[in-house]
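Holo prediction. Input below; ligand is glutathione.
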Amino acid sequence: MPLYKLSFFHFGGRAEISRLMFAYAGKEHEDNLVQRENWPELKPHTPFGQMPMLEVDGEKIGQSVAIANYLAREFGLYGKTSMESCQIDQVVCLIQDLKNAKVKAMYEKDEGKKAELVKIHTEELIPKSLAFFEKMLKNSQTGYFFGSDITLADLIVFDLTWKLVKSTPTFLDSYPLLKENHNRVGSISQIKAYVDAREATET
Ligand SMILES: N[C@@H](CCC(=O)N[C@@H](CS)C(=O)NCC(=O)O)C(=O)O
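Structure of the complex:
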Protein backbone atom coordinates (compact mmCIF):
# COMPACT_ATOMS: atom_id res chain seq x y z
CA MET A 1 0.00 0.00 0.00
CA PRO A 2 1.31 3.48 -0.78
CA LEU A 3 2.24 5.86 2.02
CA TYR A 4 -0.45 8.52 2.22
CA LYS A 5 -0.01 11.87 3.98
CA LEU A 6 -2.86 14.38 3.99
CA SER A 7 -2.02 17.92 5.05
CA PHE A 8 -4.68 20.39 6.10
CA PHE A 9 -5.67 22.72 8.92
CA HIS A 10 -7.34 21.57 12.17
CA PHE A 11 -10.85 21.48 10.75
CA GLY A 12 -12.84 19.51 8.21
CA GLY A 13 -13.33 21.87 5.27
CA ARG A 14 -12.04 20.75 1.91
CA ALA A 15 -10.05 17.86 3.41
CA GLU A 16 -12.90 16.12 5.18
CA ILE A 17 -14.15 14.11 2.22
CA SER A 18 -10.70 12.55 1.89
CA ARG A 19 -10.59 11.78 5.62
CA LEU A 20 -14.02 10.13 5.32
CA MET A 21 -12.82 8.01 2.41
CA PHE A 22 -9.71 6.91 4.32
CA ALA A 23 -11.97 5.98 7.25
CA TYR A 24 -14.48 4.12 5.09
CA ALA A 25 -11.82 2.22 3.15
CA GLY A 26 -9.82 1.48 6.29
CA LYS A 27 -6.63 2.78 4.68
CA GLU A 28 -3.87 4.03 6.89
CA HIS A 29 -2.66 7.56 6.32
CA GLU A 30 -0.86 10.31 8.15
CA ASP A 31 -3.30 13.11 8.99
CA ASN A 32 -0.93 16.07 9.06
CA LEU A 33 -2.84 18.75 10.98
CA VAL A 34 -1.06 21.99 10.18
CA GLN A 35 -1.08 24.74 12.79
CA ARG A 36 -1.78 28.22 11.40
CA GLU A 37 1.63 29.45 12.56
CA ASN A 38 3.40 26.67 10.62
CA TRP A 39 1.47 27.22 7.39
CA PRO A 40 3.70 29.99 5.89
CA GLU A 41 6.65 27.61 6.07
CA LEU A 42 4.78 24.75 4.34
CA LYS A 43 2.92 26.91 1.79
CA PRO A 44 5.76 27.21 -0.78
CA HIS A 45 6.23 23.45 -0.63
CA THR A 46 2.64 22.71 -1.75
CA PRO A 47 1.77 22.42 -5.47
CA PHE A 48 -0.50 25.52 -5.54
CA GLY A 49 0.22 27.35 -2.28
CA GLN A 50 -2.94 25.89 -0.76
CA MET A 51 -4.22 22.92 1.20
CA PRO A 52 -5.40 20.23 1.26
CA MET A 53 -2.33 18.51 -0.12
CA LEU A 54 -2.06 14.76 -0.46
CA GLU A 55 1.29 13.05 -0.70
CA VAL A 56 1.31 9.56 -2.19
CA ASP A 57 4.71 7.97 -1.66
CA GLY A 58 6.07 11.53 -1.62
CA GLU A 59 4.28 12.62 -4.84
CA LYS A 60 2.40 15.84 -4.04
CA ILE A 61 -1.16 16.46 -5.22
CA GLY A 62 -3.13 19.69 -4.73
CA GLN A 63 -6.78 20.64 -5.27
CA SER A 64 -9.31 18.92 -3.02
CA VAL A 65 -11.45 17.58 -5.87
CA ALA A 66 -8.48 16.02 -7.67
CA ILE A 67 -7.42 14.44 -4.37
CA ALA A 68 -10.92 13.15 -3.61
CA ASN A 69 -11.39 11.75 -7.12
CA TYR A 70 -7.99 10.06 -6.98
CA LEU A 71 -8.73 8.41 -3.64
CA ALA A 72 -12.21 7.40 -4.82
CA ARG A 73 -10.65 5.67 -7.84
CA GLU A 74 -8.03 3.98 -5.67
CA PHE A 75 -10.57 2.82 -3.07
CA GLY A 76 -13.30 1.65 -5.47
CA LEU A 77 -15.63 4.54 -4.64
CA TYR A 78 -15.81 6.14 -8.07
CA GLY A 79 -18.62 4.09 -9.65
CA LYS A 80 -18.50 1.04 -11.85
CA THR A 81 -18.76 2.73 -15.24
CA SER A 82 -17.47 5.90 -16.82
CA MET A 83 -21.05 7.25 -16.74
CA GLU A 84 -21.35 6.57 -13.00
CA SER A 85 -18.04 8.39 -12.43
CA CYS A 86 -19.40 11.34 -14.39
CA GLN A 87 -22.62 11.31 -12.35
CA ILE A 88 -20.54 11.27 -9.17
CA ASP A 89 -18.55 14.23 -10.53
CA GLN A 90 -21.81 16.17 -10.88
CA VAL A 91 -22.50 15.74 -7.17
CA VAL A 92 -18.95 16.73 -6.26
CA CYS A 93 -19.30 19.87 -8.41
CA LEU A 94 -22.61 20.81 -6.79
CA ILE A 95 -20.96 20.52 -3.38
CA GLN A 96 -18.02 22.65 -4.57
CA ASP A 97 -20.48 25.35 -5.69
CA LEU A 98 -21.94 25.34 -2.19
CA LYS A 99 -18.52 25.47 -0.54
CA ASN A 100 -17.42 28.34 -2.78
CA ALA A 101 -20.60 30.30 -2.01
CA LYS A 102 -20.02 29.76 1.72
CA VAL A 103 -16.39 30.89 1.50
CA LYS A 104 -17.45 33.99 -0.48
CA ALA A 105 -19.92 34.87 2.31
CA MET A 106 -17.31 34.18 5.00
CA TYR A 107 -14.75 36.54 3.46
CA GLU A 108 -17.18 39.34 2.58
CA LYS A 109 -16.15 42.43 4.55
CA ASP A 110 -19.30 44.48 4.07
CA GLU A 111 -21.71 43.30 6.81
CA GLY A 112 -24.85 43.98 4.75
CA LYS A 113 -23.55 42.08 1.73
CA LYS A 114 -22.31 39.30 3.99
CA ALA A 115 -25.77 38.86 5.55
CA GLU A 116 -27.28 38.72 2.05
CA LEU A 117 -24.77 36.09 0.89
CA VAL A 118 -25.33 33.98 4.02
CA LYS A 119 -29.09 34.19 3.44
CA ILE A 120 -28.73 33.11 -0.20
CA HIS A 121 -26.48 30.21 0.83
CA THR A 122 -28.76 29.01 3.61
CA GLU A 123 -32.19 29.71 2.20
CA GLU A 124 -31.67 29.19 -1.52
CA LEU A 125 -28.54 27.28 -2.48
CA ILE A 126 -28.63 24.56 0.17
CA PRO A 127 -32.35 23.70 -0.27
CA LYS A 128 -31.91 23.73 -4.07
CA SER A 129 -29.02 21.25 -3.87
CA LEU A 130 -30.80 19.04 -1.34
CA ALA A 131 -33.79 18.86 -3.70
CA PHE A 132 -31.44 17.79 -6.54
CA PHE A 133 -29.97 15.09 -4.27
CA GLU A 134 -33.43 13.85 -3.29
CA LYS A 135 -34.32 13.54 -6.99
CA MET A 136 -31.11 11.61 -7.73
CA LEU A 137 -31.91 9.15 -4.93
CA LYS A 138 -35.44 8.76 -6.25
CA ASN A 139 -34.04 7.91 -9.68
CA SER A 140 -31.50 5.41 -8.38
CA GLN A 141 -34.02 3.49 -6.20
CA THR A 142 -31.16 1.71 -4.40
CA GLY A 143 -30.73 3.96 -1.37
CA TYR A 144 -27.37 5.06 -2.79
CA PHE A 145 -26.80 7.88 -5.23
CA PHE A 146 -25.56 5.83 -8.15
CA GLY A 147 -25.44 2.09 -8.64
CA SER A 148 -26.13 -0.27 -5.78
CA ASP A 149 -23.26 0.64 -3.49
CA ILE A 150 -21.70 3.52 -1.63
CA THR A 151 -19.55 5.94 -3.65
CA LEU A 152 -17.79 9.25 -3.26
CA ALA A 153 -21.18 10.89 -3.97
CA ASP A 154 -22.80 9.39 -0.87
CA LEU A 155 -19.81 10.32 1.28
CA ILE A 156 -19.45 13.90 0.07
CA VAL A 157 -23.17 14.55 0.56
CA PHE A 158 -22.95 12.93 4.01
CA ASP A 159 -20.19 15.40 4.86
CA LEU A 160 -22.56 18.26 4.03
CA THR A 161 -25.69 16.83 5.66
CA TRP A 162 -23.85 15.78 8.82
CA LYS A 163 -23.16 19.42 9.67
CA LEU A 164 -26.72 20.46 8.83
CA VAL A 165 -28.28 17.69 10.91
CA LYS A 166 -25.90 18.35 13.77
CA SER A 167 -27.07 21.96 14.04
CA THR A 168 -30.74 21.14 13.28
CA PRO A 169 -31.70 17.47 13.84
CA THR A 170 -34.90 17.84 11.78
CA PHE A 171 -33.08 19.43 8.83
CA LEU A 172 -33.61 16.51 6.45
CA ASP A 173 -37.23 15.79 7.36
CA SER A 174 -38.47 17.25 4.06
CA TYR A 175 -36.02 15.06 2.11
CA PRO A 176 -36.97 11.50 3.17
CA LEU A 177 -34.69 9.63 0.75
CA LEU A 178 -31.76 11.86 1.58
CA LYS A 179 -32.44 11.38 5.28
CA GLU A 180 -32.47 7.62 4.78
CA ASN A 181 -29.22 7.78 2.77
CA HIS A 182 -27.66 10.01 5.45
CA ASN A 183 -28.62 7.54 8.19
CA ARG A 184 -27.45 4.58 6.12
CA VAL A 185 -24.01 6.12 5.53
CA GLY A 186 -23.77 7.33 9.13
CA SER A 187 -24.46 3.86 10.49
CA ILE A 188 -21.65 2.16 8.54
CA SER A 189 -19.37 1.00 11.37
CA GLN A 190 -16.16 2.65 10.08
CA ILE A 191 -17.94 5.95 9.39
CA LYS A 192 -19.73 5.92 12.73
CA ALA A 193 -16.47 5.21 14.57
CA TYR A 194 -14.69 8.00 12.67
CA VAL A 195 -17.48 10.55 13.24
CA ASP A 196 -17.80 9.65 16.95
CA ALA A 197 -14.05 10.03 17.42
CA ARG A 198 -14.09 13.34 15.51
CA GLU A 199 -16.91 14.67 17.68
CA ALA A 200 -15.07 13.67 20.84
CA THR A 201 -12.05 15.76 19.84
CA GLU A 202 -13.96 18.76 18.45
CA THR A 203 -13.56 21.93 20.45
N1 LIG B 1 -9.66 24.98 -5.05
C1 LIG B 1 -8.82 24.64 -3.92
C2 LIG B 1 -9.05 25.66 -2.82
C3 LIG B 1 -8.09 25.40 -1.68
C4 LIG B 1 -8.20 26.45 -0.60
O1 LIG B 1 -8.87 27.50 -0.73
N2 LIG B 1 -7.51 26.17 0.50
C5 LIG B 1 -7.49 27.08 1.63
C6 LIG B 1 -8.04 26.38 2.87
S1 LIG B 1 -9.71 25.85 2.61
C7 LIG B 1 -6.05 27.47 1.91
O2 LIG B 1 -5.14 26.71 1.65
N3 LIG B 1 -5.87 28.66 2.48
C8 LIG B 1 -4.58 29.15 2.87
C9 LIG B 1 -3.90 29.98 1.83
O3 LIG B 1 -4.44 30.15 0.70
O4 LIG B 1 -2.82 30.49 2.13
C10 LIG B 1 -9.16 23.22 -3.42
O5 LIG B 1 -10.31 22.80 -3.60
O6 LIG B 1 -8.27 22.55 -2.89
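Helices lie at 16-25, 39-42, 64-74, 82-107, 111-140, 152-167, 176-186, 189-201. That is the main takeaway for now.
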